[in-house]
Design goal:
The structure is a single chain. By secondary structure, the protein is mainly β. The protein is built from one helix and 19 strands. The strands form five sheets. Strands 2-8-7-4-5 form a five-stranded mixed beta sheet. The chain has a five-stranded antiparallel beta sheet with strand order 12-13-9-17-18, with no helix packed on it. Strands 11-10-14-19 form a four-stranded antiparallel beta sheet, with no helix packed on it. Helices cover 8% and strands 44% of the residues.
């Protein structure tokens, strides 16, 4: 049987799309789902702080965490590897902890408006992407967001912000009178930690990262050593997110020792 040119073209295109379809099917994203959604009333069921324990253990999502404030799913048939996957949220790429069964589950604070979430396997061959519109019942969108992630498991880096009026936002004081807040405080590796401010004050902002602690292993003599002393912090500063005026800057900073406090960025708003 002879195929006409359009039929041949469609056949070849279907063969080309097949590997991508199989890759998408191998990554299951339980939440978030695509489409339009509203947040839980007044943040009900949304918790963004993990249990602190040292040595740090695998990432955990609080019991009862609302699906509107988490990213969870499974990468099927993934090789058992210590390497993380990749999580890309609204263009910001960060490591994603995957357990031996290929599952991932972590809290995330999504901004109002259009959001995209993509999950990739450690080798980059499997991926799944979804798009959704987030509406939080009239909540004011954050005009300033700062995201911190890092490249090692079982470590804890902390995000610190100093606002123009002198407020210090960090895991010990997560909400300031000026409306700034640390939405996510991750204590077990990779991040992200997220700072958000709906109505930024005009003036200078200081962004710090503190190497708070990490996982440890013991040698034959019982001496404890850090599993990974050097970890690289990634800080992304986003202004006017989701608008035509959106600006995004990303900075990579090596963190070499527990206790280190580094000024990553000083900037003025607007």
């Amino acid at each position: 049987m002879k195929l006409r040119y359009p039929q041949v073209l469609l056949f070849l295109l279907s063969l080309t799309a097949l590997p991508w379809a199989m890759a998408a099917d191998s990554v299951k994203l339980d939440t978030p789902a695509g489409g339009w959604r509203t947040g839980t009333p007044e943040g009900e069921g949304e918790s963004f702080r993990q249990t602190v324990n040292y040595p740090a253990s695998s990432v955990n999502t609080p019991t009862g965490q609302a699906n509107t404030a988490r990213i969870s799913g499974q990468i099927k048939a993934t090789a058992k590897s210590a390497e993380p996957g990749r999580l890309i949220v609204n263009g910001v790429s960060m490591p994603l902890k995957i357990d031996p069964a290929g599952r991932f589950d972590r809290p995330f604070s999504f901004p109002n408006g259009s959001n995209s979430v993509e999950v990739r396997s450690p080798d980059g061959q499997q991926r799944h992407r979804t798009q959704f519109l987030n509406s939080s019942g009239g909540a004011t969108p954050a005009k300033l967001r700062v995201l911190l992630s890092w490249d090692s498991d079982n470590t804890d880096l902390d995000l610190h912000l100093i606002t123009p009026d002198g407020a210090h936002i960090w895991y010990g004081d997560r909400v300031a009178p000026n409306g700034a807040a640390l939405d996510v405080d991750v204590t077990t590796g990779y991040g992200p930690e997220i700072f958000a401010m709906p109505a930024p004050i005009k003036g200078q902002y200081l962004v710090y990262v503190n190497y708070f602690g990490g996982g440890y292993s013991s040698d034959e003599e019982g001496q404890e050593d850090a599993v990974q002393a050097l970890t690289t912090a990634q800080v992304t500063v986003i202004t006017e997110e989701g608008t035509p005026s959106e600006k995004m800057e990303t900075f990579l900073v090596p963190m070499r020792a527990v206790g280190e406090l580094t000024l990553v960025k000083s900037f003025s708003y607007p």
